[in-house]
Structures
1.
Amino acid sequence: MSRCRPRPLVPVSEFTGFRFPPEVIVLGVRWYLRFALSYRDVEELLVERGIAVDHVSVYRWVQRFTPLLVDAARPCRHSPGDRWFTDETYVKVAGRWMYLYRAIDQFGQVIDVLASERRDLAAARRFFTRALAHGRRPVEVTTDRAAAYPRVLDEQLPAAHHVDGRYANNQVEADHGGLKARLRPMRGLKRLRSAQVIGSGHALVQNIRRGHYELATHAEPRHRLAAAFTELALAL
């Protein structure tokens, strides 16, 4: 069994009032976050299993339950490493290009994700404030050469070594590829909140699959994600 139990968030189940049982809802959310599927694709897969559900319901499940699953998993998450790689990638929201700030550590753990309309000092500051709330402070931070980073790092991590050399950030730039592949079938998002939810949910899935949570530690690697989501559902 796992050495960590996800923390229950509320005394009453978050699934109360939903037509479908928790295992169906969590299955739909897991499929959507894990694979390059549209909401209609998830609808079709569930119908093949004899579960008649509309794609709009799948959308609502993802938007409601993804942040809850992320929060429930937080106590079981490994502390980040001490070397961080930070970068922004682009995502189209309501026909406009916006930004997803992401950071990973030297072990490939996604530390945090922040969706932002702008790529500026305020956004960089918000991102690092969020990322540092996860615990361990880095001794080295690698970024691109955006002008905002030196100022933010001087404010929040004055003791950390800042690296911004050419090609130094290849690790996180390569890591964007998995998220980009997930976003591709969507052909753009309607709301910035959706970018935040899906970016955070994809990070949760990626981190569980890479073993950065004390969840489903008894399961074989290929079954770890499904077992972890089952454990997390019990906390909702």
2.
Amino acid sequence: MSVLNDFDGWKNFLSERVNQAQSIGMDQDSISNVAYELGDYLSQGIDPKNNEERLLKELWDCADEQEQRTMASLMVKMVSDGKNINP
């Protein structure tokens, strides 16, 4: 199953990537910038596979750049604290 088919799978995938970035010394701003670029790419080129991803895309599409950057930072924060990740 693709990580995009299941929202929990997506969060786990993102959490692993954030942990990898932190382990090689990337700071939080750099990680958030990469998350913004990824969010922009996904919004423009990938069809959402579930309701959660569709909601995120709709929010992303109506947001200005600063709001999109905030959303990207929040996604990183959500998966960084470990509270919202399913094993």
3.
Amino acid sequence: MKKTTATAAVLLISATLPVLGASAAQANDRDVVRHGSCSGSTDWKIKAGPDDGRIEVESEIDSNRAGQTWAWTLRHDGKVAAQGRSKTAGRSGSFEVERTTRNTAGADTFRFRAVNRASGEVCVARVSL
């Protein structure tokens, strides 16, 4: 019994380490990350961080349903920085939008809004850097 428990513990730890390493490799100490829920069952994530004197912004919508079309707008300090349509894909039923913007004086504020036209669900993500 002890050998089985010890083996199970080693397997669990071994399986967890690559996942932890991948998360740590993607993180940056200066990045600001926010998570939240949309008006329905979908979740959002937004991350902003410095990138060679500019700011990289990544927004993700995760609905767990592939094939949904979402219209989105990214605003930087209230002005439209990018907009478009994206379709959820893969097993996760998600999509990601990445943009690099200029770094303005003072705090930079980003707002990512996505609307699922079919269901009417709305996601609004905000982050400041």
4.
Amino acid sequence: MSPPRTPAPAPALAEVLEVVEQLWPLHLQEPWDASGLVTGRPEQPVRRVLLAVDPVAEVVAEAVSGGHDLLLTHHPLLLRGVTSVAADRFKGAVVHELVENRCALLTCHTNADSAPGGVSDAVARAAGLTATAPLVPHPADPAAGLGRVGELPEPVPLRELAERLARAVPATAHGVRVAGDPDAPVRRVAVCGGAGDSLFDEVRAAGADVYVTADLRHHPASEAREAATGPGGSGLPHLVDLSHFASEWLWLPAAAAALREALAARGHDVEVVVSARRTDPWDFRLETPGPTAGGTA
């Protein structure tokens, strides 16, 4: 009879941070960003990790009630400077809940956007792209950077690409919005998880047939369509607009697997799971039938 197996020791938070730095290096984050450790002692053991898009109260409650030692979110909690984390406000209450229950909070925002295998790579996989390149290469690492651009194995109608993405992302009130002829063939695809309407010049320069991103505001989207369909325009790129939350959620399962495997390679059996909470801020949407007959605009 073989002796009972000794459980692998839990890594300290400091070692988990080393692994995270290898996967999603902090030097890749944008200058305005605030990724990194928010709460937690470097020496505390980490046996259970929860991944989520947003460090909101319901996600923190899930982490605490589930006995997680670390909550890793995509969006920062304290992106802009604060002078107080008193618990009478929602961000302060979140900080207190985490600290009082010994749950560390780590955020990987634009460093996870830019890193290979990060957010935009997850959107690219959902779109069906194989080989891709950064849309905006990072100055310190040309293999990394914001957005991705690549080609589908063969052209597909715009509607088919949009439907493929709609099946891949979590359900949201936003759904998937599309600008362009639904039957137009598309092959070269640019993507950017999260808000990507600042990258239209790069999308056009990349010769993309369609741009898949999120949070497209009226004026940038309208101007992009005018430039595409106006004098001398090619009609491209078409636009596929996802929910901000949904586009970035696509990264979480891949990130959980990567973190789990990297820790296992160091001899640690850490439970790494993805939150089931939908933290998109919108609850429902109504179709707009327009004014009734005889009404005024």
